[in-house]
Design brief:
Layout (H helix, E strand, L loop, with lengths): L1 E5 L4 H12 L3 E6 L7 H12 L4 E5 L5 H11 L3 E4 L6 H6 L1 H21 L4 E7 L23 H20 L3 E6 L2 E2 L8 H11 L3 E3 L6 E2 L2 E2 H12 L21 E6 L5 E2 H12 L5 E3 L15 H7 L7 H16 L3
Parallel strand pairs: 1-2, 1-4, 2-3, 4-5, 5-6, 6-11, 7-10, 8-13
Antiparallel strand pairs: 9-12
Helix pairs in contact: 1-2, 1-8, 3-5, 5-6, 7-9, 9-11
Length: 334
């Protein structure tokens, strides 16, 4: 297949693109290599993809409608995987306009170009943060989500709604994916697991919010990639409900799917797993709840299993050990 992967130098985008290249598909990656975090890490991810002759890279932002139009016209994609976004809950508190531009304007460009070029399946990355102030656990795709707690979550919800309207008006088969705390090798340096590891190796204190009284549904990157790859072969068909409680839209070929481990972990247990993998204890700054954060995330993954026959199952201790091994190899800390 001819496939466009936006955010191809990012954590998730690069891992999905790598899987597709290994399968022999033609992949065009799109990435703007913003300096939100270490650009060298992004360049190194992209270098892994560039080793494959069936990969091409467009260095551009999804906000650039003219460039994106040229990319789509050249590639004629069968499937589009849209992972490009301005990520990060905390960063959105200080730089909200970056999120409007990348996550709403940029997503609209990709959604509308998918409509124009009649792609067979558009897959859109979203986030568990979209559930916002929802207090029903586990989070189910059909749960109402009217109360986002950050600009980041609000922009991701906006992209979901735009995608649904296009699926309804123009028949674009669209799957929106809500990811739950993805971690693993080649991960994002702004995420807690990465920050904890880096600081523990350096002997620096780590910030533990809400004094560690948090639960997160952590998802290992390989499990996420496997889920996405299987979902690529499951484009929504209007009226094609799979199970009772299917999130399939009643008026469009559009479906929302959670991807998580369905097994929340206490933050302090997660930190302990990092300490064990590194072989040293962390110095902890026990802080209060940070603005926009939630106390618990928990994915209902029955729909994912019904669609693909698969659910993520990597134990967090195993996943953290693999990440720390990669971190040692990549950074060679003392």
């Amino acid at each position: 297949m001819n496939i466009i992967v936006t955010g191809a130098a990012g954590f998730i985008g690069s891992e999905v693109a790598l899987r597709l290249l290994r399968e022999g598909h033609s992949v065009t990656g799109v990435d703007s290599f913003t300096a939100y975090y270490d650009v060298k890490l992004k360049e190194d991810r992209a270098a892994r993809l560039a080793a494959y002759p069936n990969f091409r890279l467009a260095r551009a932002g999804v906000e650039d409608a003219e460039t994106m139009d040229r990319v789509f016209t050249r590639v004629k994609p069968d499937i589009v995987l849209h992972f490009a976004a301005q990520a990060g809950v905390r960063y959105s508190l200080e730089h909200p306009r970056d999120y409007i531009s990348a996550n709403i304007v940029g997503s609209f460009n990709i959604i509308d170009l998918s409509r124009q070029h009649k792609v067979r399946h558009l897959i859109l990355a979203s986030t568990s943060s979209a559930y916002g102030a929802n207090q029903k656990f586990p989070f189910e795709e059909r749960d109402s989500a009217p109360y986002p707690l950050t600009i980041y979550a609000a922009t991701k919800l906006s992209a979901e709604l735009i995608a649904h309207s296009h699926a309804h008006l123009y028949g674009v088969p669209t799957t929106a994916l809500r990811f739950f705390s993805v971690y693993g090798p080649w991960g994002r340096p702004d995420m807690a697991f990465y920050l904890f590891t880096d600081k523990i190796f350096k002997g620096q204190p780590i910030d533990v919010f809400n004094k560690g009284d948090l639960l997160r549904d952590f998802t290992y990157i390989d499990d996420l990639v496997e889920s996405i790859r299987r979902l690529m072969d499951c484009p929504p068909v209007q009226g094609g409900h799979i199970i009772r409680g299917d999130s399939l839209s009643p008026v469009a070929p559009y479906r929302l799917v959670n991807i998580g481990n369905a097994s929340p972990v206490r933050l302090m247990d997660y930190i302990e797993a990092i300490e064990t993998a590194i072989g040293r204890k962390a110095v902890k700054n026990m802080l209060g709840m940070q603005p926009g954060d939630v106390k618990q995330t928990y994915a209902d993954v029955r729909l994912l299993k019904a669609l693909t026959g698969y659910t993520p199952d990597t134990d967090y201790r195993t996943g953290i050990a693999k990440f720390v091994d990669w971190f040692r190899d990549y950074y060679k800390p003392a």
